[in-house]
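Action item from last week, closing it out:
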Amino acid sequence: MTHDIHIIGGGLAGSEAAWQLAEAGFRVKLSEMRGSGEMTPAHHTDGLAELVCSNSFRSDDAVSNAVGLLHAEMRALGSLILREGDLHKVPAGSALAVDRDGFSAGVTAAITAHPNITVVRERVDALPETGLAIIATGPLTAAGLASSIGAATGADALAFFDAIAPIVHFESIDMDTAWFQSRWNKGEGKDYINCALDKDQYAAFHAGLIAGEKTEFKEWEKDTPYFEGCMPIEVAAERGFDTLRFGPMKPVGLDDPRTGRWPHAAVQLRQDNAQGTLWNIVGFQTKLKHAEQLRLFRTIPGLENAEFARLGGLHRNTFIRSPELLDETLRLKNKPNIRFAGQITGCEGYIESAAIGLLAGRFAAAELAGKTLAPPPVETAFGALLHHITGAAVAETYQPMNVNFGLMPPIPGRTKKADRKKMYTDRARAAFGAWMAA
């Protein structure tokens, strides 16, 4: 098939961009390295849109949460990622979590069945010289293409570490000790498995995290910073004795059925597949060596005999200095036939990556149609995220960012904190509706 546009990378952003273009009637060539005999350090399958870390798309609350608002805007624009996420949803309170295998299989089936998309399993080592292209190779871009990107941008890619949380087989969890409950009984009220630690158990666990043997970094990795939103648990532990009790081991809103009280600390597990046979340990991304993980995580009450489907890991992410290099429609300023999308732009999170892929696809479709698509207003979740990536952030200190209300213009005047989030979302819905109508 002669194609109208070449998309390189079949992750969340590349798949979403391909879908948007194909649905608009344009012919897409989608190149994906996995399946050609090569694999990245973080992926395990050749499925499109494979989720390599958590299985959660985070909050689905579109009234008081910025990422939930982004979900709603993406659904309004016909997002494939949200469609498949909704179809493969698993219980997670007010969050949207998915069966990772079913989700990837659904995206793969939709993409490969579309008459306007041709999927080619190949490694691409250079930016296309001619024709429109979208680069959505993510934070683990292969060395050859990364070198080509560096040559084209004239700027070094930045880098940070992203860590992967372990996954436990449900049948190996001691449910006489652990219990089902969502924090504050939100959602169905039983969407998480909880393991309580008393003060002494927490102290021993914290000491184990500090003393545990960690992955050694290569020389070129040593100056790479962590992304705050995916901090390895042992690195968080090093920041203070009680840091974890205000983070991933927060006990508030959880009632230990053995005492009727909140525990000193708690570990939560979230369902990872539709069958409920796999559960991931929330916030336990780690760079501990595998033997240390097995030893230490089995000291958690209820996980003494835990069997792990996957242990935690760590991989290096790379991204470009987007505020300096990209225009407001995600085109490379000095090579405007090339757009970038997804985590390689410096957005962080599954949904944010897919959202930028969706916008890249829509901007490219408008260009192919000989039209101009105005960027969404900065008051919207889409517009705020795009604006941060393409100009609002300071290029020299640019760091990965999740969507949040702080990226939007402030609400004028004095308002109650409790009302402010709803005011942001009300304003965003009005601005988004006007943009859609236009």
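Closing note: The two ends are 33 Å apart (CA to CA).
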